[in-house]
């Protein structure tokens, strides 16, 4: 006897709704009931947030090296260690917002907006 996956899913949903009702909880279909702590934080907090602001301002339209980026953040009142800013830049590279490359003669990374 082959079971219909759609029918099984409907049965599970009905049982979960019944269980929630017995527990005194109100659940609506399509509603996410778990709390995401990152969603309550501002996208502009911390070093990565400061870098996101610079991206929004178009600062990375031209390639920039780490010392230039650190100085620009300090001008905006954001004082972070080199390691913290480097990690924030790497996170934005991983999110595919920025790209990084090594300049020919200079072996230091340059960061620019990914187009």
UniProtKB/TrEMBL annotation:
Source species, domain of life: Bacteria
Annotated region (Disordered), positions in chain: 29-49
Protein name, UniProt field: HTH HARE-type domain-containing protein
Species this protein is from: Candidatus Azambacteria bacterium RIFCSPLOWO2_02_FULL_44_14
């Amino acid at each position: 006897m082959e079971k219909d996956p759609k029918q099984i899913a409907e049965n599970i949903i009905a049982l979960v709704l019944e269980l929630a009702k017995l527990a005194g909880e109100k659940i609506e279909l399509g509603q996410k009931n778990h709390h995401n702590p990152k969603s309550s934080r501002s996208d502009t907090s911390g070093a990565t947030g400061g870098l996101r602001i610079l991206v929004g301002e178009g600062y990375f339209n031209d390639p920039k090296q780490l010392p230039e980026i650190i100085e620009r953040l300090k001008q905006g009142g954001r004082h972070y260690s080199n390691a913290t800013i480097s990690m924030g830049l790497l996170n934005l590279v991983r999110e595919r917002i920025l790209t990084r490359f090594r300049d020919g003669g200079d072996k230091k990374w340059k960061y620019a907006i990914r187009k």
